Amino acid sequence: MVAETVIDIEQLSKSYGSHRAVDSLSLQIRRGEIFGLLGPNGAGKSTTILMLLGLSEPDGGRINVLGMNPTRRPIEVKRRVGYLPDDVGFYEDWTGLENLQLTARLNGIGEKEARERAMRLLGEVGLKDAAHKKAGTYSRGMRQRLGLADVLIKQPEIIILDEPTLGIDPKGIDELLALIYGLSREQGLTVLLSSHQLHQVQQICDRVGLFVKGKLLAEGNLEALTRQLLTDTPIVITAEVDRADQQLLDRLAELEQVRDVQSGAEDPDAVLPSSSRVLLQIGCSEDCSDAIARMIVSSGVSLYNLQRKQYGLDEIYRRYFAGGEEHGSKRSKKAAK
Ligand SMILES: Nc1ncnc2c1ncn2[C@@H]1O[C@H](COP(=O)(O)OP(=O)(O)OP(=O)(O)O)[C@@H](O)[C@H]1O
């Protein structure tokens, strides 16, 4: 049985002045899913989250959270959706337990129940021993775990986490991610996790949406995402040469199948260390290694190595993040037209 859709976004848009922060975003998230909203700073992740919570009004499109329009029913949405911002505010002089009990009270939970839930959650997030210590003495990782407990105390159906691992050390990150994963699996909790860190999102998310400049470029599980992105980056041929002057770059760019040429980076995998070697990355619509090799050699340039590059999601992601949809600063025939 397919789980019900708990977040349904259709053609959502939001502008600040003339700047379109979110541009025709459509996205569905199902109950129990861990969805990663992955994008660089300024991609529009936080703006989307604010609209999901009814804290910001869309200019266009439609949002439905647990069957509700958050703009019309923000209080009901807030009751059923937990939100962990990247930096949670606590009363620093109060203990972790006291902070949680306060949140519980503010959510209308009785004193006895509040203490029980707070103690149970402190145990679940690994803060049992720190329950009676002041929040001001907690490390960044402990604060985020307390934040998670704080979000969970009202027993939400969905939790939205905005860059939850910012500023935490690697061990703390692994612990927090494992905790989020375990909570989702054990309690059927739906998680929307916003992050600009691919490897973190990769660790726990069932599906990922790659968000760049307000647009969703690709979405799916990691396999589907890689496939979608690879379609747009079909073939890259790398050539290791002794020099690459403007004339060679222009001649390569003239080849019919070549879409763009990047040069400059020295090949990190070069067999022989040499300061004079240059690595060319040539994006092509189809494999034209022969034509490229002929062009390089006929230009009087020494060719040491030529191969078709295999892209992983990591590299594709870096490529998008370096330069948005236009794939960074490179010579592009299409961009020049
Ligand atoms: N209140 C605002 N007024 C004007 N521009 C804004 C406002 N909030 C966000 N923006 C702009 O909208 C764009 C999207 O910002 P948003 O914070 O949603 O991105 P993000 O993906 O969450 O990135 P970050 O992780 O840096 O917050 C950015 O260019 C940002 O400068």
TrEMBL record:
Keywords recorded for this protein, A-Z: ATP-binding, Nucleotide-binding, Transport
Domain ABC transporter residue range list: 7-238
UniProt KW Transferase keyword: no
Entry-linked SUPFAM superfamilies: P-loop containing nucleoside triphosphate hydrolases (SSF52540)
Domain of life the protein comes from: Bacteria
Keyword Cytoplasm set for record: no
InterPro entries in alphabetical order: AAA+_ATPase, ABC_transporter-like_ATP-bd, P-loop_NTPase
Family, as annotated: Belongs to the ABC transporter superfamily.
Protein name as catalogued: ABC transporter domain-containing protein
Source organism: Paenibacillus cookii
